[in-house]
TrEMBL record:
The keyword Glycosyltransferase applies. The modification N6-(pyridoxal phosphate)lysine is found at K670. It comes from the Bacteria. This is Alpha-1,4 glucan phosphorylase. It is an enzyme of class 2 (transferase). InterPro entries: Glycg_phsphrylas, Glyco_trans_35, Pyridoxal_P_attach_site. Phosphorylase is an important allosteric enzyme in carbohydrate metabolism. Enzymes from different sources differ in their regulatory mechanisms and in their natural substrates. However, all known phosphorylases share catalytic and structural properties. It comes from Falsiroseomonas bella. Belongs to the glycogen phosphorylase family. It catalyses: [(1->4)-alpha-D-glucosyl](n) + phosphate = [(1->4)-alpha-D-glucosyl](n-1) + alpha-D-glucose 1-phosphate. GO terms for cellular component: cytoplasm. The keyword Transferase applies.
Length: 822
């Protein structure tokens, strides 16, 4: 299908294309050393990217300089993940160069789509956290907010997922094999990052000492800059990623003795910091590497911004007025101690002034209520790896607890709850607590999540610091997830409500009256059918499976995790399969269940769910009695580019996490924007999506957050739900007895036992409600006018979920920076 974004006012492509054509040829010849005849798609992609990059650089340099000249406040967004995906279409579209680029390439006999496919996905993230960071960077540029994103330039991003015999296999993601044409190496920008060693107290007066940290080892953080272009090229910001480089890459003495491996051992160890995203932390060595990664990029970012601030403003006391640092989750929480170290040890600020500057500068976004995701580190590890920071954390904690003790005398339980040091089985540093204490604002990422933060994980902090927790519901960039991913729908929207929809998300509201226009609904449905045909074509090419595009495309694409409940989806597929076989004369609605996602390499149960999905798919898809009424599809190696094809094709969006466990979700927003109806629990941003699209245009099921807590509090056992549900009992028996795994009948006994047991994620508890809601989906599908009316209203009513709105709220209420469009 055509993936050309809608036309926006540009110059005549014919006149403009010739210089760009020549620029592409010049890059191909003189940067790549290739001729037209010998060039492959990858070569053409790099040449085109370099030519487009040249169109970015002037405005990037000019706008960066202008920001410094006027003393604009800078935002620094620290994130361990930036899931930016491919950038060719993003940059070309945001620069309004699509017609020009396509015309230039057509004249050269090259397909733009082939070049886009040749670009590797920059998989520098695991899922929603990293994709949110990418959306936020684009929105900050679109709203002309001067900003830097700081992260790690991983040699290998999230692993490449291959499926062998239904099992996930992990292989390195080699996105840098042929270089990255969008980035600029900055070898001159390198900061020294220390680990280990000792701390000495050096007297500097009768009353004061300076603490001097003497690290046992030093690693260099070397900068690589990628320009981030806002919509219509309005502004260009910088994503600065750090690569680890050994200070002494080769031990010549060892090499000359013939110990060639030993000569490089230290280099390999130090440079492993930026080698791989999310190394397993199941071993002590893995834990240490994770902590080294987090400190590495956080320290580099803070050293970098302090250097820049001093050069422009001179006085570090003005940091809160000139700098806003946003911590994206707890990964960069060590920033609190590191900024204090920089201000006190390196720049001689008194403690109170340094603490005021630190807290006034830093804000923290929490993304989870899961205790295991609120990082904590063993005190012995911190003391060995970051000895000076451990001293500072002890002092921060002591002053913090003194304040709490004075305000809440005699409340030892409160002191224990808010201490930065957990004193249980093995003392640990609570990084979420550190981030909270060291920030002036802490935000959740949906209304429900922020409310739960106040009531659960940060309830005690909310008591001692009322008003610090605020809400900033997540958003997505409509440029990527509508205009670029779904150009046919975007063209229809522009035709229907005008070109303002390209710039202002609120313009989508003008679509509402057209939900009652039969002709418009048919055109809307036709766009969806074309997108489904494109996805079906990909499924046939990759999995050799023919899909019925008249069926409901029922989609769940996200990280595989028990709380996201892909297992509930698969169980419903098994129950539906049984019903279709037992009632062959019933008028069934055809359905294609599409799943995609990666399980963490060490997450055994999540990987078992992937295997179960494949086992069920193998049986269902090959059973002639089902008559193509049900298909189960698992697309491997889920990434941003695959999502860009799946999201526009979805009819039904599965957002079925256990209530109270998903902080927000952003996939739910992408699907609704593209006209998919949501089936989901009252969890995360589903609550707000329901409020915006209307109760009749969403399918809600399952226990509420309060009911989940009540079940758990009463010692809920899934067996009670199983005994009341014939469908669930039969589905579990088939899985348990090896109907879907005849080669290993016991493969899923552990999985089923968990559902019959504590059923922590309420899969059994919610099954009947979910199955009923799915039949409500079938009933709505049988009434096309009602279905497509709801689909149009989903698109019309989710403009509020734009990342532009989210970033404008951060800017106004947390960062105190102005916002400007265009």
């Amino acid at each position: 299908m055509d993936t050309t974004p809608p036309k926006v006012a540009t110059a005549e492509p014919g006149a403009e294309a010739r210089p760009l054509r020549n620029a592409i040829l010049h890059k191909l010849t003189y940067d790549l050393g290739k001729s037209r005849l010998g060039a492959r798609d990858r070569d053409w992609f790099i040449a085109t990217a370099l030519a487009v990059r040249d169109r970015i650089v002037d405005r990037w340099i000019d706008q960066t300089r202008a920001s410094y000249e006027v003393g604009a406040k800078q935002v620094y967004y620290l994130s361990l993940e930036f899931l930016i995906g491919r950038l060719l279409r993003d940059n070309v579209s945001n620069l309004l160069l699509m017609d020009e680029v396509k015309a230039a390439l057509e004249d050269l006999g090259v397909s733009f789509e082939a070049l886009r496919e040749a670009e590797p996905d920059a998989a520098l993230g695991n899922g929603g956290l990293g994709r949110l960071a990418a959306c936020f960077m684009e929105s900050m540029a679109t709203l002309s907010i001067p900003a830097f994103g700081y992260g790690i330039r991983y040699d290998h991003g999230l692993f490449r997922q291959l499926i062998r015999d239904g099992k996930q296999r992990e292989y390195p993601e080699t996105w840098l094999d042929f270089g990255n044409p969008w980035e600029f190496a900055r070898p001159e920008i390198a900061h020294e990052i220390g680990f280990g060693g000792t701390v000495e107290a050096v007297p500097i007066s009768e009353a004061r000492v300076r603490h001097v940290w003497k690290p046992a080892e030093t690693v260099q953080a070397v900068a690589y800059d990628t320009p981030i272009v806002g919509w219509r090229g309005s502004h260009v910001n910088t994503l600065r990623l750090w690569s680890a480089r050994a200070a002494d890459p080769l031990r010549l003495d060892a090499f000359n003795r013939g110990d060639f491996l030993g000569a490089l051992a230290e280099q390999v160890r130090q440079e492993s910091i930026s080698k791989l995203l999310y190394p397993s932390d199941e071993t002590p060595a893995g834990q240490e590497l994770r902590l080294r990664q987090e400190y590495f990029f956080t320290s580099a970012a803070l050293q970098d911004l302090v250097r820049r601030h001093l050069r422009v403003h001179g006085d570090l006391r003005s940091l809160p007025e000139r700098v806003a640092v946003q911590l994206n989750d707890t990964h960069p929480a060590i920033a609190v101690a590191e900024l204090m170290r920089i201000l006190i040890d390196l720049h001689d600020l008194p403690w109170d002034e340094a603490w005021q500057a630190t807290r006034g500068t830093i804000a923290y976004t929490n993304h989870t209520l899961l205790p295991e995701a609120l990082e904590s580190w063993p005190v012995p590890l911190m003391e060995r790896l970051l000895p000076r920071h451990m001293q500072l954390i002890y002092l921060i904690n002591a002053l913090h607890l003194d304040d709490v003790r004075q305000r809440f005398p005699g409340n030892d339980a409160l002191l224990s709850a808010v201490s930065l040091i957990e004193e249980g089985h093995g003392r640990r540093v609570r990084m979420g607590h550190l981030a909270f204490v060291g920030s002036h604002k802490v935000n959740g990422v949906s209304a429900l999540h922020s409310d739960l933060l106040k009531k659960t994980v940060f309830s005690d902090f909310n008591r001692i610091a009322p008003g610090r927790i605020t809400n900033k519901t997540n958003g997505i960039t409509f440029r990527r997830w509508l205009q670029q991913s779904n150009p046919a729908l975007t063209s229809l929207l522009v035709e229907a409500v005008g070109p303002a929809v390209l710039d202002d998300e609120k313009a989508l509201e003008k679509l509402r009256p057209l939900a009652d226009d039969a002709a418009f609904r048919e055109r809307f449905a036709a766009v969806k059918r074309a997108n489904k045909e494109a996805l079906a074509k990909l499924v046939k090419e990759r999995l050799y499976l023919q899909l019925d595009t008249r069926a409901i495309f029922d989609v769940q694409i996200k990280r595989i995790h028990e709380y996201k409940r892909q297992l509930l989806n698969v169980l419903e597929a098994v129950a539906l399969y049984d019903e279709i076989r037992s009632q062959p004369t019933r008028s069934w609605v055809p359905r294609v269940k599409i799943l995609a996602g990666k399980a963490a390499a060490s997450y055994h149960r999540a990987k078992l769910i992937i295997k179960l999905a494949h086992d069920v798919a193998r049986v269902v898809n090959s059973d002639p009695t089902v008559r193509n009424l049900l298909k189960v599809v698992f697309l491997p190696n889920y990434n941003v580019s695959l999502a860009e094809l799946i999201v526009p094709a979805a009819d039904l969006s599965e957002q079925i996490s256990t209530a109270g466990m998903e902080a927000s979700g952003t996939g739910n927003m992408k699907f609704a924007l593209n006209g998919a109806l949501t089936i989901g629990t009252l969890d995360g941003a589903n609550v707000e999506i329901k409020e915006h699209v209307g109760d009749e245009n969403i399918f809600i099921f399952g226990l509420t957050t309060e009911e989940v807590a009540e079940h758990r509090g009463k010692g809920w056992r899934g067996e009670s739900a199983v005994s009341r549900s014939r469908r669930l009992e039969e589905a579990l028996e088939q899985i348990e007895k090896g109907v879907f795994s005849p080669d290993d009948p016991d493969r899923y006994k552990e999985l089923v036992a968990g559902l019959r047991g504590d059923d922590w994620f309420m899969v059994a508890a919610d099954f009947d409600s979910y199955f009923t809601a799915q039949r409500d989906v079938d009933a709505r599908w049988r009434e096309p006018d009602r279905w497509w009316r709801s689909a149009v209203l989903n698109t019309a009513n989710v403009g509020w979920f734009s990342s532009d709105r989210a970033i404008a709220e951060y800017a106004e209420e947390i960062w105190n920076v102005p916002v400007r469009r265009g």
